[in-house]
Design goal:
Strand order of the largest sheet: 1-2-3-4
Largest sheet: 4 strands, parallel
CATH class of the largest domain: Alpha Beta
Strand content: 5-15%
Structural class: alpha/beta
Shape: globular
Distance between the termini: 16 Å
Number of domains: 2
Helix content: 40-55%
Low-confidence stretches: none
Number of strands: 4
């Protein structure tokens, strides 16, 4: 952005892996960012991180405990034995589809019917991007790197960059603001949506775009 495109300062937005990248940029290059906007909060996942938690914080810790016990199997195998899994999914289109569609089913705001959140054509397009390029294996390596390199956001970091956040109700983890403020010291906008899940840009693109514009508009 600065060396090649010539922008002295810029804005960054991200969800999922993009939220980690955006937050890491704010840690390393705060002077270059006018603000960061997130639809996922990459705070540390430590069940012992809060002493004397409030009712809201306790509810989050219960949510986090369920996530760690019941929903992280995919992450561990992708982070520990990525090549073994990659061979199986690259060999079987049905297996690849099952692996990906399960995440759409679990992580979208769909009430058990995934096609109410993401259309069949959209899911097939996503699956084909992995299948036609043989890229499912390479998509696992960020998980391997995180398992073997530690949390991407430095321990004890405080992000002073103006920060906006939008929470979708079926996001995989939804830390309360009191937890987010341990990392983000300058939260200027915090919005809770009525509908949407982890794949916000796919599920609720207009709602997400409105939030991004609303946050960055006064920072330009």
């Amino acid at each position: 952005m600065t060396d090649v495109l010539g922008y002295r300062r810029f804005a960054a937005q991200g969800g999922d892996r993009g939220a980690f990248i955006t937050s890491r940029l704010a840690c390393q290059f705060p002077e270059r960012l006018i603000g960061v906007h997130l639809n996922f909060l990459p705070v540390r996942r430590d069940l012992k991180m809060l002493e004397n938690p409030s009712a809201e914080e306790k509810a989050y810790l219960d949510q986090l405990n369920h996530w760690l016990k019941e929903e992280t199997g995919y992450s561990w195998i992708q982070g520990a034995k990525p090549t073994t899994l990659a061979f199986g999914l690259t060999d079987s289109p049905a297996g690849l589809a099952a692996w990906i569609v399960e995440k759409f089913h679990t992580w979208t705001d769909c009430d058990g019917n995934v096609e109410t959140a993401v259309s069949r054509d959209e899911m097939l397009t996503d699956i084909m991007l992995y299948w036609a390029t043989g890229a499912i294996g390479s998509s696992f390596w960020p998980y391997y790197d995180r398992v073997h390199s530690g949390w991407p956001i430095p321990h004890g970091a405080r992000i002073e960059t103006p920060t906006g956040y939008v929470e979708f109700p079926k996001e995989i983890l939804r830390p309360p603001r009191s937890v987010a403020e341990r990392l983000y010291a300058n939260i200027q906008r915090w919005t809770v949506m009525e509908k949407g899940g982890h794949f916000a840009a796919l599920e609720q693109p207009e709602a997400l775009a409105r939030e991004i514009r609303a946050f960055f508009r006064p920072l330009r």
